[in-house]
Amino acid sequence: MKYIAVGQNDGVIELFETATLKPIHKYEVHSMKVRKIAFLPGDERFLSGCDDKLIKLNSLTDLGQSETNRTNRALRIYAAHSGPIYGLEIDEKSGGTRFASSSSAQIFLWHIEISTPISVIPTEHSGLITGLSFSPTSRHLLSAGENALICCYRIPASGEESPIPEEEEIQEPESQAQEENMEIPPAEHLEQNEYPLEYQQYAAENYAENQQAAQYEQQLYQHQELPQEYPQEPAENVHEFQPHTIKTEPEASYSPPPQFSQHPQKQEYDA
């Protein structure tokens, strides 16, 4: 490998020459922390994954052509993740045309020329997926996450169809007649405002009951007297309340006590 790429917290990717460790170029294509960088076979392009939920394809062919040694535009942008990119792996057997990426409980397969995922891999991870690796045969993909699980997925080889069968639509019978291989007349054969025969029979059988219920509801809403469910008790068994009069004696008149003078007159007695 001729170059070493280092991602920084401010979104800048700095490229160093492997032999001299001299910085030779900067890529200002991200706005947040760069977490993953993966070189494609041939050392002419590399992928970068960032906290901005984007994966970008960058070129190495313009090295030394810019006066400022800076690049602020990517070749292609891959967008589908709902969180920061924590995993990024190139399928070496595909010649660099396929790669995988991961974030929080998400794993996508990509084609290098397509900006949207070519496959979504269902996963058992409930948190961050921090590690991805293709098998040497390129038929399996392994993932490791924060929930202490390592999962292995069977994936199609480059150019093959997915081995995961598509779910077939389950056609439920429209009625019991269809289950018994009986023909059901199509709806368009019915005249306008004409109900099916089964509904007409049901309506005829329940007409009397529906009429009685309708009359009862009408009486209820008109506040009429409804028929009583239980007979009333005979009149002789009803105990009427008889008023009782209590006689009271009149209150005695009140007379104040006699008053005495503070200085009573002295009574004289003859000797």
Automatic annotation (TrEMBL):
Q: Where is the composition biased (Basic and acidic residues)?
A: 236-250
Protein name, per record: Uncharacterized protein
Q: Where is the composition biased (Acidic residues)?
A: 163-172
* Keyword tags: Repeat, WD repeat
Q: Is Repeat among the key words of this record? A: yes
The annotated regions of Low complexity compositional bias extend over 208-230
Source organism's superkingdom? Eukaryota
Q: Does the entry feature the keyword Transferase, yes or no?
A: no
Question: Looking at the record, which segments are called Disordered?
Answer: 160-181, 208-271
| InterPro entries for this protein | SKI8, WD40/YVTN_repeat-like_dom_sf, WD40_repeat_dom_sf, WD40_rpt
User: Which Gene3D superfamilies did the record assign?
Assistant: YVTN repeat-like/Quinoprotein amine dehydrogenase
Q: Name one GO cellular component term.
A: Cdc73/Paf1 complex
Taking the record's annotation, the residue ranges forming a coiled coil are: none
